[in-house]
Protein 1
Amino acid sequence: MNKLRALLIFMTLLSTRPGMAQEISLRADRMKGEKRRGESFQILRGSVAFEQNGSTVTCDEAEYNTSKEELEGVGNVRITSSEGVVVTGSHLLFNNKNKTARVDGNVVLRDKSMTLTTPWILYHTDTRIGYYGAGGRIVDGDQILTSQTGSYNPNNSMLYFRYNVVLTHPDYTVSTDTLQYSNATGNTWFFNYTEINSDENTILCNYGNYNTRTGQGYFTKNAALISKENIIRADTLSYSRNTGIGKASGRLWVKDTAQNIIIFGNKGYYDKNRKYTRIMGNTLAKKQEKNGDSLMLKADTFVYVADTGSGRRTLIAYHHASMWRTDFSGTADSLTYAADDSIFSLYGKPVLWNDNTRLNADTMHIHIAGSRIQLMKMRQHSFIALKEDSAHFSQISGRDMDNYFNAENRLKSVWVQGQGKSVYYIREKDAAITSANTVQYDQMRIGLDSNKVSSIRFYGSPSGVLYPLENLPTDQNALPGFVWNPENRPEASSFKTPFNVPEMPKRRIEKNNGGKSGKKKKG
């Protein structure tokens, strides 16, 4: 936009002081005077020229109505300013009384690297406001601006373009219907549907502004930022090109299209250089599974970060984290999701519920393939409780556990390593419970079928006691650390989306029609 300086110069090159008309000193190869219908004319032929406010105007022929103070010139019209701006056309109409000047007929304005082409330009010398209205194209080095109309008001240093406005820059393209630019501040405003396309992303909005000097942008009214891997929607988006830092507020919606992860919130922060995104305020995350199911997550704050070297992405949920899917749910102080490896890691007293099973440890790592839990690693103070009936719970505790799941995401086997203890109940042919076994061991592998213990194998030197159910001591039916608190189990009703996502604005401008970034290919 700063490079439109030549257009601004042209808009003042014919100006006079408001309220004052200057005499026109005309020169030509041949000049004569004549009267027509009571009006006086000067007829000029060959090398017509006159000076106006420091600019030189030339053409092949001209007629000057001295009564109306109106000059009409034709043929090779050329205006040259003292600053070196040159305007050419085939026809000139200059009215010194009405303070208007119009050049038409394949008008070309040139100044160093900048060229404006348009059918005509009209300028008001009293208000010093000039405009074109039949389509214009401004080429300034590797920048191109086209619009149906354009105007400049030097009183407030404002450029205004309307209808099919396209500004093509090597790094981005702006396509809109209305664009206003302040030469004083470097601010650019968009007043209706606007697309800003680059190789990195596309910004959509219905109102916004961008400062070409500070690199600060502000976009609102159904704003969206679309990149190769993400879509960001918010009531308001702001971004600084110089710092790479962006902010969002009000009904924030972020989608990782590669991983099918959607995050809701009310406030967001983005750092391009660190590849870091933070989302806060009434947050909810949703991961769409291939089988149509969804994994829901909640926390006080979500952080999405990508490794600057490998690009591997991680979703982090801080404080009061919880998760829910139709086949399991859980809580933790915080959790992480390594998107490329599909591994969930839970920290800070994590608890996972799976059918009638409760699992907890100091840390838990859940490996997911497709929509299946393949492996759950529990580390330090690991504990599993399985509900046998309303009064009895089989229990397994140990230092570390590796848990494997079947195709229905039910626990099928547990490998206990270190400090193992168990109490499990025995049924006769799936009938009522008849006995209970308490045992201590160093390592154990236990198999389950429909959440019931089906096989056990001990390693090392286990010790234990088999009790008839009625003889089981009351101090043996619960291992240290046993907890069964179903009231704390997350339910689907707690994971409702906080707001309806506004419909994505329909793209109105095709990228191959003025919407490309204009970046040159290397070769």
Note: The longest strand covers residues 411-427.
Protein 2
Amino acid sequence: MEPYRDPSLSFAERARDLVSRMTLEEKISQILSSAPALARFDLPEMDWWSEALHGIAREGTATMFPQAIGMAATFDPALVRQVGAAAGIEARIKHEQYAAHGVRDLYKGLSIYSPNVNIFRDPRWGRGQETYGEDPWLTSQMGVAYIQGLQGDDPNYLRTAACAKHYAVHSGPEADRHVFNALVSQKDLHETYLPAFEACVKEGKVAQVMGAYNRSQNEPCCASELLLGKILREDWGFQGMVVSDFGAIADFHKSHNLTADEAQSAALAIQKGCDMNLGFVYLYAKDAVERGILSEEDIDTACRRVMQTRLRLGVYECPLQYDHALLDGPEHRALNLQTARESLVLLKNDGMLPLRGIESVAVIGPNAMSLKALMGNYHGDASEYITVLDGIRHNAGAVRIRYSSGCELVPFQMPSMGGRTVTSDESMLHLFGRVPETFNFLELMGHGDRSAEALACAEESDAVILVLGLDETIEGEEMHGEGCDEFADGDKKTLLLPSNQRRLLDEVLALGKPTTVVLMSGSALAVDDKRINALVQAWYPGALGGEAVGELLFGKFSPSGRLPVTFYRGVEDLPDFTDYSMKNRTYRYYYGEPLYPFGFGLSYTSFGYSRLSIRAGEDVTATVQVTNLGAVAGREVIQGYVRWDGGDETQPRWHLCAVEAVTLRPGEAASIQLTIPKPALYSYRADGSRAVEPGSYTLWVGGGQPDARSAELGVSVVEGRFAL
């Protein structure tokens, strides 16, 4: 038996032997993301590009969980680990099904380009929906949990090879991602942008790290001596493989103007530690070797890392087997619905919810019957979708339901009219005086005014549920002219709803009917009309998300989701989108009054906190009594926030350091312990160094942040101090 086939040897030894037997051309072929078969080594074809941001994606039927930002709103890492495990198991099953029929192409492999652990620093960023929010600690916890689920518990073999992306300092604007140079202070770099990646490497043992498109600190992220060499390999001891984002290495010569051609770009990336090219530039690596600008030894190093990962996936022996009945089966569907329930955030409620004592309700809005609004980007295909309207029907009992879309998702724009918006009170004759010969009426079909219908539905009903927001067609990754003028390249220009939805909202509220608004979006929206009785943030809640929304509205469970991002009152309160400084960004550094704070979320009951005690030892432990003060059972997310009292204005106001959850019956109390490990107490200095500083610390424990706005919204918090 050749050493590379011998399971008694280490994966590193086996990879070294395998690569030593390859020709230069064979080695180069294996560091491309679409790797051909090498028959003489019994290596089948493998495409490394697969996605599982919130369930296995782009491979056909699979369980579609809530979008990542919705999973973050659960504040439940244990649940997210279960979701990751379900996604990893389904990826294995799909791979086995396709491979049994000789299909191993794009999206069919076991290399999963998830999770996205970039920091959602600005609510305008369209891809923020893919992240776990704005807080480095929460992002770390969720990212590690998802990786552990994807990769599995076997001490040797990987269920799938997860990938932490996009390393690093990457969060929009989408239009500039191929040319942008993200310049940040050393403090912001190490305090905000790197901790989640460090946790993914050190705690999650992630198999892969993906470099970002942009430059950071004047170096391309996919060939950065600082990021890849010094920090990732030397400081963190990463032993896995680095992959470029798709086309990112081509950007070296096409956009960043750092190299003259493909061979130079390939040489630069490989020499600096980018092991695999998601793209095609490494096809020119042989040219680079022949020109003397790249050594074959550098290619060997990259190829060994790739082969070691492939061996860990069990290319020659596969001890990991799963029952194919799990794919989109009852167990994963139940987990999907549980995740959707925990993701929903109740932002406002004057007693309107849960809905009771009504005979009829009008369900209005472009997202009420939308499948797209369930999905979020990087999604799979579900075998069943339950829209919000479906979920309301399933849970409304004998209540009469009237439905109207009310309007389109965004103002309709006619391409043949130069993008001019067609408003509801304009006709073609009004616009042109006559109908132009080139006008295609088919483009206008289905885009007529539905506001009158919506108002009639509302007038004839006891209450209204308005289902508004966005979807992945206007909010997401680098778009080119899609959507409407109110959005750009997948990013938002403002935090407002699209103008036609704002008009619909105003017209319905003017009727004076009791109104609940359900927002479906992957990011913060500023919806603050005082006439709204109840407001639910539903994110993109997955294929079964409409069922969870219906259950919440009619009181089948008490909501417990929490905001993983700050909901600001407007972009006017924020720095320029291209400014990567954390000054006046996120709850840790924002000194304005938010609309709804990070960590906030209401319940159908209320919880009281008392008897906080703190013990500072190797770790800091806090014990607090939590009591359900209301009349219904509920799940409470208990949050710990800490501040070093010796800090100055360059330090965060406070930061999240612990999360626990408890479900209590009415009147029931429980003593809850939170453990705060020393790394969660780090303070960061101007040079990026960190330490647990000696002195006094303040700890707040409760249902949200210790800020004035949270208190105004009814959040209960207790405070204590300890010394280190």
Note: The domain at 607-723 is CATH 2.60.40.10 (Immunoglobulin-like).
